[in-house]
Design a protein that fits this description.
By secondary structure, the protein is α/β, with parallel strands linked by helices. The protein contains eleven helices and twelve strands. The structure holds ligand PBG.
Length: about 325
């Protein structure tokens, strides 16, 4: 009778053996939580397509940040909703806008205990929902860069540690780096949404910020999700233009892209588990079709295993709580049977 020569199961026998040998891990420091802050509301407003997430007032945002800090999560990514949208999206670089005010408030309350990254795009601010300034029915790349530079300056002046341009305009990282340096903001870092795919998984987010394009779609600037080589080119362009970190987005459906970018990038890599990935998990768990906690951890650890240093996720707080509960349970002495 032939027995197996190798028995990998020996090392899977007990929880401790499995813990010792776990390769990829998810720590609170690996996570960033996206948050929405709105102008012109007096109470936080639940986002229907994203249970547990809100349009925050400045006050409720600060409460949320306090929870984030308590959980050991080091970073938030802010999105703003203006009181009123406009054709050119001027709200994005309004020094008194929701994101700018919130950034000031967070930095003055938490200082270096919380890293503030600000999403830098026009789509939440334009009446047509596109990510830049229009020329006819197309987004004018270079006119948009000027608006991005204004926005970057306004966010840096408010105290953002990191600006995160997400509009996929050519040359956005270089233009923003130059504009920031010109005004003495050479310490403001750039997290570039480098390989941002034209994805169906942004659906709930667009509902949340009412940014579904009024006509057409974003395929003339966001990437074709079928392309890996092009993702690597985009990453290298952004690194050459001065990106301090690069991002792949969405994460789950693009783990191969995360993995290749992590292998080849000379700067740290972030991956964004987007609203649609969150919504799928939550919807299935709410129906009892998936074990919520197990599926959440599996999805996030997989993004780490693929090579992302930073995981941006709407589930960041849930993940830390799930991990804390698990370690509390494992410290309870085993019951005698
Ligand atoms: C803005 C932006 C988007 C997301 C992040 N930044 C929306 C888009 O491109 O439509 C999506 C986030 C998510 O789905 O969670 N350009």
């Amino acid at each position: 009778m032939a027995f197996p020569e190798s028995r990998p199961r020996r090392l899977r026998r007990t929880p401790l053996l499995r813990a010792i040998l776990q390769e990829a891990r998810l720590a609170p420091e690996d996570l960033a939580l996206p948050l929405f802050v709105a102008d012109g509301i007096t109470e936080p407003r639940p986002i229907e397509s994203m249970p547990g997430h809100f349009h925050h007032t400045e006050a409720s945002l600060l409460d949320e940040c306090a929870e984030v800090v308590d959980l050991g999560i080091p970073m938030v990514l802010l999105f703003g909703l203006p009181g009123e949208k406009s054709e050119r999206g001027e709200g994005a670089w309004d020094d008194g806008g929701a994101v700018q005010r919130a950034t000031r408030a967070i930095k003055s309350r938490f200082g270096d205990r919380l890293v503030v990254a600000t999403d830098l795009c026009l789509c939440e601010y334009t009446t047509h929902g596109h990510c830049g300034i229009l020329a006819g029915e197309t987004v004018d790349n270079d006119a948009t860069l000027e608006a991005y530079c204004e926005t970057a300056i306004s966010q840096a002046e408010a105290g953002a540690d990191i600006v995160a341009p997400s509009g996929m305009m050519d040359g956005q990282v270089g233009a923003i780096r130059a504009a920031l340096d010109d005004l003495g903001h050479e310490q403001t870092a750039i997290l570039a949404y480098s390989a941002k795919m034209a994805s169906a998984f942004y659906g709930p987010f667009r509902e949340a910020v009412d940014s579904t394009p009024a006509f057409g779609d974003r395929r003339a600037y966001q990437m074709n999700g079928a392309n890996l080589e092009e993702a690597l080119r985009e990453v290298w362009l952004d690194i050459d233009e001065g990106a301090d970190m690069v991002m792949v987005k969405p994460a789950g459906p693009y783990l191969d892209v995360v993995s290749r970018v992590a292998e080849e990038s000379s700067v740290p890599v972030a991956a964004y588990q987007v609203s649609g990935e969150f919504a799928m998990l939550r919807a299935a768990a709410d129906r009892g079709w998936l074990d919520h906690d197990a599926a959440v951890m599996e999805s996030l650890v997989s993004i780490r295993r693929a090579g992302a240093k930073l995981v941006i996720s709407y589930l960041a707080k849930d993940a830390v709580r799930i991990a804390n509960r698990a370690s509390a349970n494992s410290q309870t002495p085993p019951q005698r049977g």
